Amino acid sequence: MLGVIMLDTVFPRFPGDIGNPSTFEFPVIYQVVSGAIPRRVVYDADRDLLKPFIQAAKQLEKQGAKAISTSCGFLSLFQSQIAAEIQVPFISSSLLQVPLVYSMFCSGRKVGIMTANARHLTAEHFQEVGAGNIPMVIQGMEDQAEFTKVFLNNSRDADFNRLKTEVASVAARFAGSKEVGALVLECTNLPPFDRQIRKAAGLPVFHLNSLINMVYRSL
219, CA 20 to 30 Å: which among 7, 25, 89, 172? Predict the structure, then answer.
């Protein structure tokens, strides 16, 4: 089984989102960290969440999870601390793929990052996953009203078509770029729109699901 440590959210989990069990072709068990709302993780980088996330990871391991992931890429800040506390593979963030993607696709070019909020994605988030020295171009969803309302302000009300439009508009910023070789999606709420992202950007797209599937198949 895959174990997933979930933020405390009420927004819809569309197919392709890590919080939707239909996203994967194998069993998934979930553990919600009470009080870990998106704003505490993304805006506040709240270190007080580390202990309950470690507890959640240990609980999932006891329940039989053979690999454990979080449900927010900003939790890359906790990669080394949580990994040290469990005995199974731990995936804090899709950003773990950045060094791999750079090696495969981006010789002489940069890795494109699409994130929920570029203003709060810091050098420390990348350093924790071994990507501190990799050249990147970062584009964020922070100025997109529907995306922010739903996924950062945690709203139950979501307009899927409007979200598709917003996501495609940000992905299109990478279109025609000769300096970017491939995209990595930080945000776990973006994979439901990977088709629109790939089409708008015209680049290979990697996200948390692609990483999870690779790790799961290794087991």
Answer: 7
Tell whether 82 and 98 lie within a shared domain. no
Q: Are residues 102 and 23 in the same domain?
A: no
DSSP 76: G
Q: Would you place residue 124 in the very low, low, confident or very high pLDDT band (cuts 50, 70, 90)?
A: very high
pLDDT digits (tens, 9 = 90+) for 44-91: 999 999 999 999 999 999 999 999 999 999 999 999 999 999 999 999
- Name the helix (H) or strand (E) containing 173: none
122 and 50 in a common domain: no
Measured torsion, CA atoms of residues 64, 189, 72, 9, in degrees rounded to the nearest 10: -80
Q: Indicate if 114 and 77 belong to the same structural domain.
A: no
Alpha-carbon distance 41 to 209, whole Å? 20
In 3D, which of 152, 135, 130, 126 has the Cα closest to residue 9?
A: 152
Please give the residue range of the domain that contains residue 161: 94-207
Question: What SS3 state is found at 26?
Answer: coil
How far is the CA of 13 from the CAs of 23, 62, 184, 203, in angstroms?
10, 26, 20, 25
Two tokens at 25? 């072709």
Structure letter (DSSP) for residue 149? I
Residue 126 belongs to domain with CATH number: 3.40.50.1860
Share of the chain above pLDDT 90, in %: 95
| Residue from 213, 176, 163, 191 nearest 72 by CA | 191
Say whether 71 sits in a helix, a strand or coil: coil
80 and 9 share a domain?
yes
